[in-house]
Write a structure and sequence with these properties.
6% of the residues lie in helices and 38% in strands. It is mainly beta. It has one domain: Pnp Oxidase, Chain A (Roll). Strands 1, 2, 3, 4, 7, 8, 9 and 10 form an 8-stranded antiparallel β-sheet that branches. A two-stranded antiparallel sheet has the order 5-6. The two termini are 38 Å apart.
Length: 211
Amino acid sequence: MPYSRGNSNNIIVGAAAFFVADTTLDNSTLPAFVSSESYKDTLSDEIDFTNVGYTMNGLELQFQPDFGEVQVDQLLDVAKLFKQGMQVNLVTAFAEATLENLLLAIAGQSADLTGTKSTSAGQVLNMSAGELGECPVERGIIAVGPGTGDCAESDVIERVYAAYRALSIESVTVSAKRDEPSMFEVSFRLLPDDTDASYGKLIDRTWTPAS
């Protein structure tokens, strides 16, 4: 087989559509794929999912393993490493500064958001401190982005990022500045599910538009 420098079609560029579920997910509760449509369209028809709209700085999935060391007298370096911990984070920024997105960013209870902004009473987000021992709000996340760098196939090949249990545990800033847009930078800590200790999955799929 002749030498090849690489495959430029494997260089993926582009942002993902970001959806947040009202509940946690697992492998059995992920919405089923429809062969004739993009997963973005499938999720848009699911009432339990919220499309956060525009994002800034894309999406980052960070894997942070933690290894312990075994040192022995006869070596100046460690003799063995063993995995003793794991942490996975998903980072993005919500560019649409809606109260719905702020609720997701601060991991608020759904009951904290009431009313609609089209009425005189307005839409209200109750900035509640919660109660001692209150369980944190966990939600599922699915993002759908480009799955190939092949321009001819980019419309039908997509990569799906599914996170089963996500908690927003980092500080979130709400700003109103003259020279910067109001947006919510959010970092989700992902937790493994109880069934198989899976954080979620990444899926590369091809769909075929209906003729």
